[in-house]
Amino acid sequence: MAEALEADFVVVGAGSAGCVLAARLSEDPAVKVVLLEAGGEDRNLWIHVPLGFGKTFADPRVNWCYETEPDPGAAGRRIFWPRGKVLGGSSSINGMVYIRGQHEDFDLWRQMGNAGWSAADVLPYFRRAEHQTRIRDEYHGQDGPLAVSDVAEGHPLCEGFIAACVEAGHPRNDDFNGARQDGVGYHQTTTRRGRRCSTAVGYLRPAMKRPNLQVITRAHTERVLFEGRRAVGVAFRQDGVARQVRARREVVLSGGAIGSPQILMLSGIGPAAHLAEMGVPVVHDLPGVGSDLQDHYSAAIKLKCALPITVNDVMQSSVRKVRTGLEYLLFRKGALTVITAEVALFARTRPELATPDVKFSIATFSADRPQDGLHPWSGFTLLVYQLRPESRGEIRLKSPRAEDAPAMRPNYLATETDRRTIVAGLQMGRSLLASPHMQRFITAEYLPGPEVRDEAGLLEHARRTGGTVFHPTSTCRMGSDPRAVVDAELRVHGVEGLRVVDASVMPTVISGNTNAATIMIAEKASDLLRARAPLAAAA
Ligand SMILES: Cc1cc2nc3c(=O)[nH]c(=O)nc-3n(C[C@H](O)[C@H](O)[C@H](O)COP(=O)(O)OP(=O)(O)OC[C@H]3O[C@@H](n4cnc5c(N)ncnc54)[C@H](O)[C@@H]3O)c2cc1C
């Protein structure tokens, strides 16, 4: 018989948010915390080496390797949706780009009725999380668990791109996470001395020494247990054995934008008609669960490079691979320190916009699909995505069994604005690549190819070859309207003792990569759960 488990707080999912929560909640020795994770420990070596991103990208030992339903917006294709299934969750397999979003994103959350989530309210939590290695100013923190450092070294393609953007009139920006996001510059990264800083590394590992924190891996949560309308624990399966853990105070779902709505629906909280169709007894009819899914859909221009300076070239040569390995081991430099995309431009497709609506980034490698390996020739990629898409999709159950992945319907490029923006982005990207600063590197445009010129052709290219940049959010959206799932304190509407804390609660997807904002949400949630006064908003 497995031991009876009980804790004050039961946190489900040890991802970007769950590790932060478990670490912060267990700071109080009087509070017992159990953290359940479906995946295993983060022992895989490739998790910790930045370029190892390519190795974990489609490895089912650490990754859920989801696929969407065939999506009309993506020419009827299923889109590969990696998600971390390991301690650290997606922060253990992500691209390590550190971007917070625009101040206006959070002010919009506040304007939508979510008290406590304005830019000024959330800044102290971004700062509390951060251990920034370069910048000392009012936007950054130095004492947090999450290492944020600059890319290890510049690259000729990145320098060329920066010069092309500056020539086109874009400002140089050495801190996308400071006063403003506009402009071109190098990303900051969640790495420390050439190694990935996931939330498992930054937050959870140090906290695991505490006797009041119990981390249970390979524990697949199947549903929340209720007494009446109060959540009192969860049922999970570990190595085929059904187990339960009781929560004296609260259950917190941090299963991510796919996992959390799936667990809610399996537990009887969701659109009543859909639950009835799936044979799940309804605890509370909450139509917004799994609805309002947002994601960043990207389109790429892939280039053949004139010089053997790309990651593709390193991977083609045994001699260079050995040299790269030694360079990394000895100096923490070279191709193994490369993150997904090192340089970015935040820009407007229309001058009348108040803030940037597209992000461009340069990846110093190219592939048809990353999961199939890199091209065997020198190549690099210019990627563009719309920062605030209007299209909304949904997550729905496919069966009442927890082991079956739910249906993911992103509904990409469903609105005229979204279609126009991705096409305008591709056009802008091409004009930047036409600069002599980039032309000296380019022998040919591999995709979409020079024959694709008009808007219809570019849209077709986006539909046929585009993909996610892995930022699904808003499937348990915060708010007070009838479709909202959690309130501004992240409590699930209509029941007691249950919160959701992860990327799924974002009222709208932020204008950029989603890891930093998810960690901020968990930092703030830990104060809400401990009933502590919010950190003072920035002056
Ligand atoms: C390949 C990839 C690249 C990315 N690149 C970047 C980037 O460069 N920069 C950036 O800012 N963002 C990036 N992101 C996005 C970012 O990492 C995510 O937005 C963020 O990690 C989401 O955090 P979360 O806590 O919501 O979910 P996750 O971190 O995904 O955590 C959810 C956890 O819950 C667990 N779980 C789910 N269901 C269950 C269940 N039933 N029982 C038990 N456990 C369960 C999962 O295994 C997982 O560990 C990337 C994501 C991916 C996948």
Domains (count): 2
Count the DSSP helices. 15
Q: How does CATH name the architecture of the largest domain?
A: 3-Layer(bba) Sandwich
Distance from N terminus to C terminus (CA atoms, Å) equals 55 Å
Overall 3D shape: globular
Radius of gyration: 22 Å
Give the beta-strand count. 26
- What is the CATH class name of the largest domain? Alpha Beta
> How would you name the CATH homologous superfamily of the largest domain?
FAD/NAD(P)-binding domain
Quaternary status: single chain
Query: Largest sheet at a glance?
Result: 7 strands, mixed
User: What structural class do helix, strand and pairing data support?
Assistant: alpha+beta
Low-confidence stretches: none
Q: Classify the fold: give the CATH topology of the largest domain.
A: FAD/NAD(P)-binding domain
Helix amount: 25-40%
Helices and strands in order:
Blueprint: E1 5-12, H1 16-25, E2 33-36, H2 45-48, H3 53-56, E3 66-67, E4 80-81, E5 97-98, H4 103-111, H5 119-129, E6 130-132, E7 146-150, H6 156-167, E8 183-186, E9 188-189, E10 191-192, E11 195-196, H7 199-207, E12 213-216, E13 219-227, E14 230-238, E15 241-253, H8 256-266, E16 269-270, H9 272-278, E17 284-285, E18 297-305, H10 311-316, H11 318-331, E19 343-347, E20 358-363, E21 379-386, E22 394-396, E23 407-409, H12 416-433, H13 436-439, E24 442-447, H14 455-465, E25 467-468, E26 498-500, H15 515-529
Parallel strand pairs: 1-2, 1-15, 2-12, 6-7, 15-26, 16-17
Antiparallel strand pairs: 3-4, 5-9, 7-9, 8-19, 10-11, 13-14, 14-15, 18-21, 18-24, 18-25, 19-20, 20-21, 22-23
Helix pairs in contact: 1-7, 1-15, 5-15, 12-14
The structure holds flavin-adenine dinucleotide.
